[in-house]
Amino acid sequence: MSSFSPESRVGDIAVEQPSATRSFYRFGIDFCCGGGKSLESVCEKKGLDVDQVLLDITLQAAGNGEESPNDWKSASSVALISHIITTYHEPLRVELPRLKSMLDKVQKVHGHVDPERFSELQAVYTKLGDELMEHMLKEEQVLFPSIMQGNETEASTLLGDLEQDHEDAGEALRAINRLTDSYVAPEYACNTWRALWSGFEDLEKAMHEHVHLENNILFPRTLAGVN
Ligand SMILES: [Fe+2]
Ligand SMILES: [Fe+2]
To answer: Is the N or the C terminus of the chain less surrounded, counting Cβ atoms within 10 Å?
Structure first.
């Protein structure tokens, strides 16, 4: 049986048992920025049965025949940082401008069908893209080198600012989810439009995993002075 209870924090569950993130996706539970909340309070807010979610988490632990996501809790900070850069930062630098040019194209050709939605999407996405580029530079040029040099005291002073960036990105991704009807394109949408919605969906998923590793594993470890 799962060792978690309704009082367990969502972020702690994701750290202790990475396969639980599959349950969180299934039930739409935010485990990165909302990781500090108890499972019970999140379920209550979303109208979910906490026992059903706990059961699902237990079933994920039992395997269900699927490969388990990596356990980054036991990896070194250097290995975790390297994984974050190659798996999330580098692909984001390619993906953010790619999605922006698709959005420009779809807006230009089809924006007239729903101009308000497209102009809000442009505003939210452009701001998110600019902020994420700047955020990754702060991590790569200041935070990660401090951690790798064992200077956790200096690194700790940056964490509040970086966590606020994560909150802002989470809010923008929720807005994009809403503006794309949870990534369901209309019947008449062209292939580029469909690919754009699907790209936004992948972006949200990757950002959840990325922010989870930073907020729930790397940052607490830095605050605790552990390398
Ligand atoms: Fe990052
Ligand atoms: Fe980050």
So the answer is: N
3-state DSSP assignment of residue 9? strand
Indicate whether 65 pLDDT > 60. Answer: no
pLDDT tens track for 127-182? 999 999 999 999 999 999 999 888 888 888 999 999 999 999 999 999 999 999 99
- Distinct helix (H) and strand (E) counts, the chain: 12, 0
Query: 208 C-alpha to center of ligand 1: Å?
Result: 11
- Locate the domains of the chain by residue range: 10-61, 75-223
Q: How far apart are CA 176 and CA 68, in angstroms?
A: 29
Confidence (pTM): 0.83
CA of 221 to the centre of ligand 1 (A): 15
Question: Ligand 2: distance of its center to the CA of 192 in Å?
Answer: 29
